[in-house]
Here is the input.
Amino acid sequence: MRVSPVRIIRAAALILAAAPSLWSCLAAVQVNPAFGDTVGIPDSLWIVDSVIVTGNRETKDFVILREMTLVPGSRITTAELEFDQNRIYSLRLFNQVRIGVEPSAPGFAHLHVEVSERWYIFPFPIVGLRDRDWNKIFFGIGIMHQNFLGRNEKLFAALVLGYDPSLSFSYRNPFLNDGGTEFLAAQLSLSTVRNRSLLTEDGGDNYDERHVSAGMSLGKRIGIEHTISLTVGYEYVDVTAYLPGRTVSTSGRDRYPTTNLSYNYDTRDLGEYPSRGSYAGIGISTYGFPSSELGYVRYGYDVRQFIPLPGGLTFAARGYGDLAAGGVVPPYDHEYFGYGNRIRGHFREIVEGEQLTAATVELHLPLFTPVYMKVDKLPAEFGLWRFGIAAALFADAGEVWYRGTPFAVNRFIKGYGAGLHFLLPYSYVLRLEYALNEIRHGEFIVDLGGAL
Here is the structure.
């Protein structure tokens, strides 16, 4: 489905024009709550005496305290207060988080962490775009518990129809112990996936891949910044119409074990739209065994940096990639631009290979600092909404290539442009953007989430 650029511009204009009246129509609007009651508090005036958590009817205190850098004995600064508020909000368990400071004794103060909980368990409709493509709509129904036993445990089951139908189950427990230093996750999925590879289509006739995937992860979290995990699993893939090259096995069915060892470093303040902090993730994944019919390795990396600038600006940068080694990489595990990963300016162009590297930079300017809006007619779990709007400049570049083909920077595809980013309730980001490629051909983009 093509979206008319005129409609996009009109929609953005209407949203901006309606914003002041929308703000006034909803009750109990609180401006800039990300700093809550902490505005104007001098740095290092007090030391934390105790941390008191309120409003968490279901969530255990230790789930919240696990995300905080301010602990008894720490010196209180406005930067750390704001950071802790955003880290707790990034759990995606709360509609609002506020931290207040109450002097308790000379040189000491209590921290009051006040949260407004979201609704945690419910069946929900599923509607979305596969590969961020408006022509690939999927729909279905799911049920989830976002905060099982109040420990931030995740239970999820979903049936998806439409494009790439699937049935999936997953469980994640980030608190195998009360300190939150060890976690476990498990997943099982069955799916039918439309072939993406342009090389394995025969005479324009495409085919489907049937995937069965199971895996279990064990990991350790060190402090609030470092995470190490090991995942083991098993994959089964077959195709609806076998031809040589569509699977590694000549039987048309690939069966193989998988492993992944990963490390993540994360100091970002807010998961969905950071204003400061760093993220670095590296991983090594194996598929099959080196001596077997199917056996290869992937090395992945993802590095992000968010730097606050004067005037409320944020400079954001990201570099990411996936490199292959070993045996034959099957087409269903190729790398692409034009599906999940995109280069704006070439947003709908499909580029295929075995390996990928890319970089993007953005400059964010808040137009409406996020505010909370209370809708009195809705239950508390649904009636507190967070909205914000930011303008952005961006530039993307990247390359996808096959092993044996020389890597060349001059073959990078590139794009740049500007847009509006709408920060929506429940941690969604809607992007309305206009991008140009190397020869200044332009395109309008409507996207949920995005490169950073």
Residues 125 and 141 are 5 Å apart (CA to CA). The longest strand covers residues 355-374. The two ends are 25 Å apart (CA to CA). Helices lie at 5-25, 61-65, 78-89.
